[in-house]
Amino acid sequence: MARSPTHLKTLLGVDLPIIQAPMAGAQGSAMAVAVSEAGGLGSLPCAMLDVDGMKQELATIRERTGRPLNVNFFCHPVPEFDAVREEAWRAKLAPYFREFGITMDLPQSAAGRSPVDAGMIEILAQFRPAVVSFHFGLPAASLVERVKELGAKVLSSATTVEEALWLESNGADIIVAQGIEAGGHRGMFLSRDLTTQVGTFALLPQVVQAVSVPVVAAGGIASANGVAAAFTLGAAGVQIGTAYLLCPEATIRPAHRATLKSSASRHTALTNLFTGRPARGIVNRLMRELEPMDVDVPEFPLASAAISPLRAKGDSLEIGDFSPLWSGQNASGCKEIPAGQLTRELASGL
């Protein structure tokens, strides 16, 4: 059953049914504030923040806006270190380390992304966000229940109808139908089979038909026309990430910005090279030379440890050869305008 955009606006208390996708490493409080102040739902990604950083960002947001906010967490299982895979992965990276004169005496457990825990959820009691969202499924039932006790709606991403049904049965109030066009990490959690992943406008109507909770469309939506098309197919809202990456509030590196503005942005692929999980980014040197998906890459998020010195070197040279240039398949909506203005433009066709 198709749902009007008013349904999501009423549910979340926002003026515009636009959710700014939480983009860990690419934005912080500034973008969340700008989008929320414009009437959409700004999002703060917390997967790469420690407790103090999370508190600081949330305090900054609450000093600057009292409007609804989405706070986002990852809920992936903590992997066990696999020495064999780690050695194989480092062997593949070794030629690049030699090229740049970098040693490989790295800590074996560096991860960079932490799954949500009870302590993180309790921090939210001070800030009372309207929405708490999760990527890679949902955390333990007790944490989902605690989020609801705090008065927040629970949102999570589904990449298949099966995942959407699982989320609904396990407490999700809103489901994001994440099409394969979307940039960044796939939210897939019931299967690792990439052949199950389909496009947004194929997935969206199937999820809308299958579940009774509001469904938000994500992936490849980068214009007011795209937003309107999603609502035609039954969306109660849209979640947009890539289009915000050239806004001044984004915190991406210069090489990432330059690539987004070039014709190279039209060539993206799913890759596990940077973190250990499939994620969509612009094809760069590492993806071309090692192939985007590699079975030797350590489990998420352990893969990021060995590659981090190469990323740092590339950043210092302002090249994007060894860093994830996250982007969806449609970067045509990227504009160097304030995030609030972009939010209003995206909603202008409703």
Structure description:
With 350 residues, this protein is of the alpha/beta class. The chain has a single domain (5-346), classed as TIM Barrel (Alpha-Beta Barrel), CATH 3.20.20. It is 37% helix and 13% strand. It has 13 helices and eleven strands. The protein is globular and about 55 Å long. The model has no long low-confidence stretch (mean pLDDT 94).
Query: What's the helix-strand series?
Result: HEHEHEHHEHEHEEHEHEHEEHHH
Termini separation (Å)?
A: 19 Å
Q: CATH topology, what is it called?
A: TIM Barrel
Number of strands: 11
Number of helical elements: 13
> Mind telling me which CATH architecture this is?
Alpha-Beta Barrel
Name of the CATH class = Alpha Beta
Q: Topology, please?
A:
Blueprint (H helix, E strand, L loop, with lengths): L4 H8 L5 E3 L8 H9 L4 E4 L5 H14 L4 E6 L8 H18 L17 H6 L7 E5 L5 H9 L3 E6 L2 H9 L4 E5 L5 E2 L14 H11 L4 E4 L5 H9 L4 E4 L13 H7 L7 E4 L7 E4 L2 H6 L12 H14 L22 H8 L4
Parallel strand pairs: 1-9, 2-3, 3-4, 4-5, 5-6, 6-8, 8-9
Antiparallel strand pairs: 7-11, 10-11
Question: Descriptors for this entry?
Answer:
350 residues, alpha/beta, TIM Barrel, eight-stranded parallel sheet, three-stranded antiparallel sheet, 11 strands, 13% strand
Compact description:
The chain has 350 residues and is of the alpha/beta class. It contains 13 helices and eleven strands.
